[in-house]
Amino acid sequence: MAPITMVEGRRISLSNLDKVLYPETGFTKGEVLHYYATVAGSLLAHVHDRPVSFLRYPDGPDGQLFFTKNPPPGTPAWVPTTPVPRSDDPAAEQIVVADLPSLMWAANLVVEFHTPQWTVGSPAVADRLVFDLDPGPPATVVECCAAALWLRGRLAADGLEAYAKTSGSKGLHLAVSVEPTASDRVSAYAKALAQEAERELPGLVVHRMAKALRPGKVFVDHSQNAAAKTTAAPYTLRARARPTVSAPVSWQEVEACRTPADLVFLAGDIPPRLARDGDLLAPLTDPGRAGRLPGGTPP
């Protein structure tokens, strides 16, 4: 029988704590739960008021992986949900990870956390702009850093401040806090910048997903700004061979990156980084730091 744990007054059944989820390092489910409890304050700030989608990997990254937006069967009544109507299901709802109990309940399912660029009550009105920089081998995160630095400067020219985090896989994510703006408009702006990056850096960047175009280059994926798309949340563990994290990084670290290993962070690396640097993405959660897209007042 799974042990019952009380988390801030909520009863949570935690199962299979000794199960090894990451065989390469021996990282167990219990360690996954401990990680999320340790970084909860920072992670919760970034998923606050956002519907969460889960990439579940209950048997580890080598087992079955499945993506779900709907609340899983057996979701406790106290776990918050929000209506997120879809064309295939007008009554659809999604989980909102609002506090430590709902975070630990979700973590017990063994999930990656993914969120859209908009908040509850404002679907298709984005307050984030994101780029997912994905290297096509033999390119690596080193080339992603070069593309990220160009995008940072280009965004700054438009009065927008970009922040970086690792994807937790092979690439890099850029995020910008923006005044609430229609997702379609944010998407169009992001696509235009990706196209401009390709024109300015033709040997480094592509803005289209076609695999034939990508070897040795960085795909600047602007599509995650669409209202229906999601991005891996800051501090989420990823379903990879090792317990890698989508970890915030400083621009100094981006500039200094010389090998892929320079920007790989495992679960155990994150608490010391938070203790030393705080949350490097904290400005994204401050509405006062939001920028305005060029071209007029947001709708």
Overall description:
Its EC number is 6.5.1.1. Residues 28-280 form the DNA ligase D polymerase domain. This is Non-homologous end-joining DNA ligase. Residues 278-299 are annotated as: Disordered. The structure is a single chain. With 299 residues, the chain is an alpha+beta fold. It has helices at residues 29-38, 40-47, 100-108, 141-157, 183-200, 251-256, 270-277; strands at residues 4-7, 10-13, 20-22, 27-28, 51-56, 66-68, 81-83, 93-96, 111-115, 125-135, 162-166, 172-182, 205-206, 218-221, 231-232, 248-249. Strands 5, 6, 7, 8, 9 and 15 form a six-stranded antiparallel beta sheet that branches. A six-stranded mixed beta sheet has the order 13-14-10-12-11-16. Strands 1-2 form a two-stranded antiparallel sheet. A hairpin with a 5-residue loop joins strand 11 and strand 12 (172-182). Helix 1 (29-38) packs antiparallel against helix 3 (100-108).
